[in-house]
Amino acid sequence: MAAPAALDVSLERVATAVAVPPPGIDVDGATAEAEFLWELRKYVLLLATLAASVTYSAGLSPPGGFWPDNDADGGARLAGDPVLLVTYPRRYKAFFYCNATAFVASLVIVNLLLVLSLAHRRRWLRALQAAMLLDQFGLMGAYAAGSCRDAAMSAYVFVLVALVGCYVSAHVLVFVLFAPTARGDKVTPADRVERARKYLLIFATLAATITYQAGVSTPGGFWPGSQDSDHLAGDPMLRVQHPSRFMVFFYSNTTAFVASLVVVMLLMSNTVTQHGFRSCALWVCTGAAMVGLMGAFASGSCRSIKTSMYVVALVAAVLFYIAIQALVFFCKPVENLIHDVQQAFERYLNKFERLEQQSQQQQQSRAPEHGNDDAYQILRKSRMYLLLLGILAASVTYQAGLNPPGGFWQGDAAADARHRYLAGDPILHITYPRRYLAFFYCNATAFVASLVILILLLSNILSTQGIKYCALQVAMILDLFGLIGAYAAGSCRQVSKSVYVSLLVVPVFLYVGIHVVVFMLEVWPARPAWIQALSEKMEQCAPSWLKELFEHPEQGEEEAADVERTLEKRRKLLLLLAILAASLTYQAGMGPPGGFWQESKLGHVAGDPVLNDNYPRRYVAFFYCNATAFVASLAVIMLLANRKLSARGIRSYGLRVCVILDLLGLMGAFAAGSCRKVSTSIYVLVLTFAVLLCIALQVTLVLSETARGLAKRLLSKLGAGEDQAGGDGRHGTGVAAGGARDLWDEKLPKYLLLLAALAAAVTYQAAMSPPGGLWGDATGHVAGDPVLTSNYPRRYKAFFYCNATSFMASLVIMVLLLIKRVSDTPPALLALHAAMILDLFGLMGAYAAGSCRRVRTSAYVLALVVGVSAYIAVLVVASIGIAGRLRSAMDWLTEQVTRCFSVHDM
């Protein structure tokens, strides 16, 4: 879950506009609360997205795990069934229904935020508030049922919610009644409240997601079998082996989880937020969440009292270190010394850059600080995405370092064995020592380079110097080449495949370089005659529709600022997509579908991919497609790191073609690695062609004036354009009197891209590791095959097809967002909404099929889907022109009835 955990870095700044009610509209208390919630829509979207990801993962991998094999006594238990369904049936049902409710409620929130024509309504935002509360309580119920096995411990969750709620309410009430007179009724500045709210929302959302995952997946794992006097299958191992440690972990983690959810709910109310900040109630809840996280980490990350004491002591040591630093820097002599050293260092850097500029630009009379300003602007605009690159690269390399490819030995080596190893040692280090060392050093280099990127971006000493930009480029290239080396060494076991990954970089860069050179030749003032003749000949041979699609608009009438803003938007979208794709394919390469052999036997070696021995052609297809997508993603990132090269690459469509190659590689890897039969792979390939057909249809709709006019007439028939400014309590996010574009319209493609990328990541990982697990070597089935294909073939097919549909719909959205003429027109936005709805419905179907093994429980999820769809349809009907006509009819009928029964007439 590295990619979903890191998405908050980009969502924090995706939308910065604050909705302001238009003049002339009365704002009452209900409308003010609705306006307040609409201003926080980016944080609500972040909360719903992360909640959907964790509930989807928890539904497909429920607490307690799955049965590894069928019941030997001929019972009803089958391999792949949830263990809790047999040992704790009521608790499992409670977890399933609450988790499913939270999952569907999260998707409802996403849908409510994405429907632009309805998102400005008061009733719509009230429905959003109800969905958020349902989501929060669903998470609480699922956590209470799945994180423990005792009724008293489950009751603790709800009792803690009530106690925290009462504490905050009493705190705020006392402050409202008595504090204003004591403090002179001082009002906290709005900017301080907004900044604190932003930080608390991000922290509380992330804390809630990680504590939910830790609660339903207890450290130490679960017992695979039952013992009458000791434990049942599905019980946490930590509870039996270390009962005191488990209690500390549970209560600390639960406290952090509940405090985080309470903070999120309270921050969604403007009144409570104002008084909560001034009364320090929210800060107390945040402190409780932080203390709970520390306690859960200290008790769950180790098994020794000494190491737990060390973790707790680290907190005091860090606080002591910060205090010492603050005292030192507040000291006047030390402050003056640091200021003098910093000024001397900056003078040296300015002198170095001034000499470099004078040597490169002798014919120009520019100020020496211009290069610094240009570098500063580049860093300022790219800081968020470079931070995202550093965070994701550090997270995937950290995880790959702790869990290297090939897995670990499950037991100690025999006395007469050829190699000596202990349980927990990396298998690859024994079977392929050179390959493991190459992977280790490259992965460590990439990890350290990622940390260097983060340190450079977070430091202010070199923030305005061009040398920092050069250092960042060097660190990024070192980071990405380290990732390539680690991928080439760890994703395969043959030299030929490693060479393929290493050499794949050459044609990719050569292709993009040719595109950039061709574009530079086209804009060069003096071109050779043969180039001019060749260009004219190609233009004559090309069809008109292709010219219209790929020709660049004339920039004579456009201002330079608009062109630069457009290029910056395309650059950010491409960079974000490439970063997420690189992290996803790196993780899939390190842990291929089917897992690894745990023991060396005749025909295979421990640490080798199981899929390579049982399905060699399928594994080869998966490897080459995944490697192509990985290298293409890194190539795009490297080229986008240089602003001049990225501008030429974007305008010459070189980088865009690389991104299309990246997405096609993801499609091929998904088709090869997510299934074991040819028929299902053919279905995925058919979906791929459907993606391309959908793109062609969307382009046709955008370029056709007839289709555009038909869409406008259809919208006018529905009455979408008949809403007035103040009717029905619309928000002030609409178009201003001067015709300026709505800021929500400008941010909507970024929201769609983030949601599509997250959905693609979740469905890709779910396909590589399907629910129910995989068959092992000791069974009578083929090792590496999904267990559900044998015991529940229809359910597995439903899960696979729905999951594949969601994955392909996500790719449709990402591809459409790369086409400017498609993403900037109303018909294309409608298509993007339709694709996102199809994506979310595919997620719902995959969840219904893969999260349970009974028809009744699946029917519950489907009933929720139908109910949600009907609810949204009713709100749609109530919000378009039909509602206006019905209101006019009701007003006329009311007038007639009032006149008939008037007192004067009687």
Q: Could you explain the architecture of this structure?
A:
By secondary structure, the protein is mostly helical. It folds into 3 domains: 151-322, no CATH class; 331-368, no CATH class; 369-412 and 420-537 and 564-732 and 742-855, no CATH class. Helix content is 74%, strand content 0%. It has 36 helices and no strands. It has helices spanning 2-6, 8-14, 29-39, 41-60, 84-87, 89-114, 122-146, 151-183, 190-216, 237-241, 243-267, 270-279, 281-300, 305-330, 332-360, 370-402, 427-431, 433-458, 466-490, 495-523, 529-541, 544-550, 560-590, 610-614, 616-640, 643-651, 654-673, 678-703, 705-718, 743-768, 788-791, 793-817, 820-823, 826-850, 855-879, 881-900. Helix 4 runs parallel beside helix 9, helix 9 packs parallel to helix 13 (281-300) and helix 18 packs antiparallel against helix 19. The protein is globular. The N and C termini lie far apart (73 Å).
- pLDDT averaged over residues: 68
**Secondary structure tally, helices:** 36
Largest sheet: none
Number of strands: 0
Runs in which pLDDT lies below 50 for 5 or more consecutive residues are: 1-27, 362-372, 548-556, 718-741, 901-906
Say what oligomer this is: single chain
> What is the domain total for the residues?
3
Structural class: mainly alpha
| Helix proportion | over 70%
Categorize the overall geometry.
Answer: globular
Strand content: under 5%
| Rounded radius of gyration (Å) | 30 Å
Distance between the termini: 73 Å
Keywords: Coiled coil, Membrane, Transmembrane, Transmembrane helix
Coiled coil: 338-365
Organism: Triticum aestivum (Wheat)
InterPro entries: PGG_dom (IPR026961)
